[in-house]
Amino acid sequence: MDIDEIIKALSNPVRREILVWLKDPVTNFPEQEHALELGVCAGKINQRSGLSQSTISSHLAVLQRVGLISSHRMGQWAFFKRNEEAIQAFLDEMNKQL
Amino acid sequence: MDIDEIIKALSNPVRREILVWLKDPVTNFPEQEHALELGVCAGKINQRSGLSQSTISSHLAVLQRVGLISSHRMGQWAFFKRNEEAIQAFLDEMNKQL
């Protein structure tokens, strides 16, 4: 776990908001047709954010690089979900350190 | 509480280390002559870090600006201590949000 990189990833409010949305996909992405167990489709996250596709792609890439989310590809789609274990490990470390 | 600014402040490992040192001043700054209740003298933090005075000053200024530490001036000395309430409020918010 690279705690510096995780904190940097979290310093952006859009990235924190994506993590919050992914906590409750049923409520936040009810219109997704694919099973939400796979994760949430990048396009849906994009739609909800109102930001450009490239901006959201780069935020998702940052969150994935530091391990806070994981992705699953199926055909032309990319689905993202939280990595609960990594998020909890990070919070535990922050609570311990600070 | 400006959570974005606090996270940015904490993304630097030296700043996190200063907060860790200030958690236990008796152990980490036993050589300080002034009462540790006032806080830890900037010069002592500087010495312990092995970094330049201007680097440490700027790290302390960032931590103070976001409210994680507070300072007390006495003559030529500046003493710093953790703002436990703000640190706890930040951790509570992160635990809740993430």
UniProtKB/TrEMBL annotation, chains A, B:
SMART domains in the record: HTH_ARSR
Instruction: Identify the Pfam families for this entry.
Output: HTH_5 (PF01022)
Protein name as annotated: Transcriptional regulator
Q: Which organism is it from?
A: Undibacterium terreum
Matching InterPro entries:
ArsR-like_HTH, HTH_ArsR_DNA-bd_dom, HTH_MetalResp_TranReg, WH-like_DNA-bd_sf, WH_DNA-bd_sf
Q: Please provide the record's keywords in A-Z order.
A: DNA-binding, Transcription, Transcription regulation
PANTHER family from the UniProt entry: TRANSCRIPTIONAL REGULATOR, ARSR FAMILY, TRANSCRIPTIONAL REPRESSOR SDPR
State any single GO MF term.
DNA-binding transcription factor activity
User: SUPFAM superfamilies annotated for this entry?
Assistant: Winged helix' DNA-binding domain
Residues of the HTH arsR-type domain:
1-98
